[in-house]
Each structure stands twice: as structure tokens, then as C-alpha cells.
Amino acid sequence: DNARTPMQWSAAPGAGFTAGTPWLQINKNHSFINAEADRTDPNGIFAFYQKAIALKKESNVLLYGDFTELYAKGRLYVFAREYEGRKLVAVCSFDKRSRPLPVPVTGKVLLSNYPGETAPTAPLRPWEYRLIEV
Q1: Residue 58: partners with Cβ closer than 8 Å, 6 or more residues away
Q2: Confidence class of residue 1 from pLDDT cuts 50, 70 and 90?
Q3: Which helix (H) or strand (E) holds 92?
Q4: DSSP letter, residue 99
Q5: 74 closest CA partner among 108, 3, 40, 124
Q6: Is 30 helix (H, G, I), strand (E, B) or coil?
Q7: What is the Cα–Cα distance from 117 to 106, expressed in whole angstroms?
């Protein structure tokens, strides 16, 4: 039942989940992997989703664009959204290894789950997501 360990809310005793004894053991990494720490990390999951949601709210391409699957094989998936002459390409790697980009895409990276600048044509890093404005 390791898939349902208690939520790690903070570095506090009991991971901020409970003051009692939980049914399943709390992961020992809760002191540094927890929701409270992630909310203050500018490169964390919370910050990534804030950026993604803001981008979706302001982008008619993401809201209304036509969907086209460009590549779906193994652990790589690439799709495009197009609307009123604008095109965005999403590149998704579900692999624990780096992989070459499966289709040629040039443009500007609008969003990535890795920090820092990323060239749109660079190899995909493990578990990477890239949204590219073509």
C-alpha cells in the first residue's frame, strides 16, 4: 500500500498530516519534500502550475485552438494547438532517460518544468515538458 502514504504537508513532526500515528508510515524525506517547501520554491511544482494556468488563461491558442497529434510513440508525446495563425507545440517525455526531440520544432519555449533557458531543439531531459510557440 505504498502508493497512499500520508500527505507530506510540512517538515513538522507527522509531516503536518497528523499529530497521531498514521496507518501508513510517513516517508523519511518529508523534512525536505513537502507542500510547504514546494510553495516557496520558484522552480517547484506549485510555481510551474501557476505559470501553466496563467498561460492558459491568456492564450486563445490553448483555449480554442485545434488539436493535432504530431508524435506518439513509446514514452514521448507531441501535439500542437493552432488558432488564428498562431501555433503552440507541447512536447512531453515520460521517460527516465534523456531523449532526442522526436519531431523538428523551432520557436520560443514558453513553459518548461526545468528551470532556466531551454533551446526548443535541445534533447528532452527525463520527465520533461516543453511548450513551444512556433
Answers
A1: none
A2: low
A3: strand 86-93
A4: B
A5: 124
A6: helix
A7: 14
Half-sphere exposure of 67 (CA within 13 A, CB side): 4
Angle at 119 (CA atoms; ends 93, 112), nearest 5 degrees: 50
- Summarised one tens digit per residue, pLDDT across range 8-52 is 999 999 999 999 988 888 999 999 999 999 999 999 999 999 999
Cell of 19: 499529530
**β-strand partners of 129:** 92
- HSE-CB at 89 with a 13 A cutoff on CA atoms is 18
Q: What is the DSSP letter of 128?
A: -
The pLDDT assigned to 2 comes to 59
| Residue 82: all three cell numbers together | 493552432
Amino acid at 3: A
State pTM to two decimals.
Answer: 0.84
Length of the chain: 134
**Cα of 41 vs its chain's centroid, Å:** 14
